[in-house]
Amino acid sequence: MPDIHSHERGLIETRIDGETLFEGNFLTLKRDRVRLPDGKEATREFLEHPGAVMVIPLFDDGQVLMERQFRYPLRQVMCEFPAGKLDADESPLFCAQRELLEETGYSAGRWQRITRIHPVISYSTEFIDIFLARDLSAGQRQLDDGEFLETFTMPATQLLDWVRCGQVSDVKTVIGAFWLEKILDGQWSPEPDAG
To answer: Where's the Nudix hydrolase domain (predicted)?
Structure first.
C-alpha cells in the first residue's frame, strides 16, 4: 500500500537543535533551528501548549450555555463556550467534564466528542478537543482562585448572528457555532457518546 503522505516529504522541516526561551506556568516559548526541504537552515519560534478542551452545553430547549470572561491579552470581555486547558495526564473528556462543572456548575448526562482543532498552527502546538454536552443538570460552580466569569444562556440559532456581527470572535467558539448549526440541521454528526 503506498504511503498516503509521500507527497508531503518535500515539505518537511527537520529540527537541528533548539533552546527554551521562557518556561511559564502553562506556556513554554521555544526557538528551534531547522533544516528546510531545500537544505537551508531557518529559525522557528513557537509556544508549547498542553492542549485544551471546549464544551458546547446544549439544553433540550435549544438554548446554549455561554460565558463572558475578560481576556487579558485582548483587554476585553469575550463571549465564548466553556473551555480550559488539560492538566497533566488528564483525558480530554475528563477535562471537559471538570471544566463544565467548575466554570458553570453544570454536569451533563451525555457527552459526544465533535472534533479536534489547531487554532494557531503558525506559532503554537495548541489543540482543542470540542465536546457536545447534553442532558444538563445545574449544580454549584467551583471557579479557580482568580477566575472571574459570568454565564448566560441564548438560543443556539442566535449564536451565528453574534458570530456574523463580531460579538463572538473567539475562534474556538466560532468553529463550535458552525459545528452546532450543522449538527442541529442533521448535516453532520458528532462521534458516538463519549461518556
So the answer is: 49-181
Cell of 89: 495526564
Domains of the chain in start order, with CATH, are 6-48 (no CATH), 52-184 (3.90.79.10)
Report how far residue 32's alpha carbon sits from residue 83's, in angstroms, rounded to the nearest whole number: 30
Inter-residue contact 73 to 47 (CB < 8 Å)? no
In angstroms, rounded to a whole number, what is the distance separating the alpha carbons of residues 92 and 85? 9
Is 92 in contact with 51 (CB distance < 8 Å)?
yes
Question: Nearest Cα to 152, choosing from 165, 162, 116?
Answer: 162
Distances (CA, A) of 92 to 7, 62, 155, 162, 166: 32, 25, 26, 28, 29
pLDDT in tens, 117-138: 999 999 999 999 999 999 999 9
Answering whether pTM is above 0.90, one says: yes
144 and 150 Cβ atoms separated by less than 8 Å: no
How would you classify the pairing of strands 76-80 and 107-117? unpaired
Residue pLDDT, tens place only, 39-72: 999 999 999 999 999 999 999 999 999 999 999 9
Q: Which of 71, 50, 45, 47 is nearest to 127 (CA)?
A: 50
Quickly state the pLDDT bin for 1 (edges 50, 70, 90). very low
| Alpha carbon distance 142, 77 (integer Å) | 20
pLDDT at 139 over 60: yes
